[in-house]
Design a protein that fits this description.
Number of helices: 10
Largest sheet: 6 strands, mixed
Order of helices and strands: EEHEHEEHEEHHEHEHHHH
Strand content: 5-15%
Helix content: 40-55%
Structural class: alpha/beta
CATH superfamily of the largest domain: 2-enoyl-CoA Hydratase, Chain A, domain 1
CATH topology of the largest domain: 2-enoyl-CoA Hydratase, Chain A, domain 1
CATH class of the largest domain: Alpha Beta
Length: 271
């Protein structure tokens, strides 16, 4: 049986690739896929051989959002269909999707979205949750919820304003219009746009670059950047001083300074 999510860990180069693998359904987020994705995110988060993570999709789409077969009127069961518990069942069902978004957001390791095609609805939110986004020329983006009478329940109301500003976030949520790659790049949402054939190699190059860096410093930088969004400047500076105290006393800092003085490439061990 084909797995809905595949994981490949390249321990030698220090990164993992997670591939959404339902190309026949445009990698829509079925209940089974969400469960598998959440488990794999937890796995790479604690694997010391992994210093960066790539998420991509198989086939012609990155992710088309929630699986409509598991929504109202569809033949399947899933987190978006109320049972006897009504709204409370639905609220609990969303916990699984939230586990995935939070798994990316809270993971100390950088997560790169290699966006090979359309990212729609919850698939757009999945891309938004990542730290770095590299897209092929075939990518498009849509907060599609409004088209089916839904609220952006995968974190869109928190993610979009932080990534696009309030005006563009409102447009995306209220209209459900597509955003093309050129516009996404102009907003700083995308780090780069490459040809379809160059996408994975470009994402892997970024992952390798991150993996050769000092893991302690990079993980603290991600944590502070994420948490800093909800802090005032004074609190952020206090927390930054505490984080810097950790890096200043690390073996990686000693190695980095030695490499700098000896004019060689550093070898960071993450300690």
């Amino acid at each position: 049986m084909t797995q809905s999510v595949n994981l490949h860990i390249n321990s030698e180069l220090g990164f993992a690739t997670i591939t959404l693998n339902r190309p026949e359904r445009l990698n829509s987020l079925s209940n089974e896929l969400l469960e598998s994705l959440a488990v794999l995110l937890d796995k790479v988060a604690v694997d010391d051989s992994v210093r960066a993570v790539i998420i991509t999709g198989a086939g012609r789409a990155f992710c088309s959002g929630a699986d409509t077969d598991e929504m109202i009127g569809g033949p399947g069961d899933g987190p978006h269909k109320a049972g006897s518990g009504g709204a409370e069942d639905l609220r609990r069902g969303f916990k699984l999707a939230q586990r995935v978004i939070l798994g990316i957001h809270k993971m100390e390791k950088p997560v790169i979205a290699a966006i090979n095609g359309p990212a729609v609805g919850a698939g757009f939110d999945l891309a938004c949750a990542c730290d770095i986004r590299i897209a092929s020329e075939l990518a498009r983006f849509m907060a599609a919820y409004v088209h089916v009478g839904l609220f952006p329940g995968y974190g869109g109301t928190w993610l979009y304003p932080r990534l696009f500003g309030s005006a563009k976030a409102a447009e995306l949520m209220y209209t459900g219009n597509f955003m093309e790659v050129d516009e996404a790049l102009s907003f700083g949402f995308l780090n780069s746009v490459v040809s379809e054939g160059e996408l994975i190699a470009t994402a892997e190059k970024m992952a390798r670059r991150i993996a050769t860096g000092p893991p302690v410093a990079i993980r603290l930088a991600k944590t502070m950047m994420r948490n800093g969004m909800s802090m005032d400047l004074e609190t952020s500076l206090e927390m930054s001083a505490a984080a810097e105290a950790i890096t200043l006393s690390s073996a990686d800092h000693i190695e980095g300074m030695a490499a700098h003085r000896e004019k060689r490439r550093p070898w960071f061990k993450g300690i």
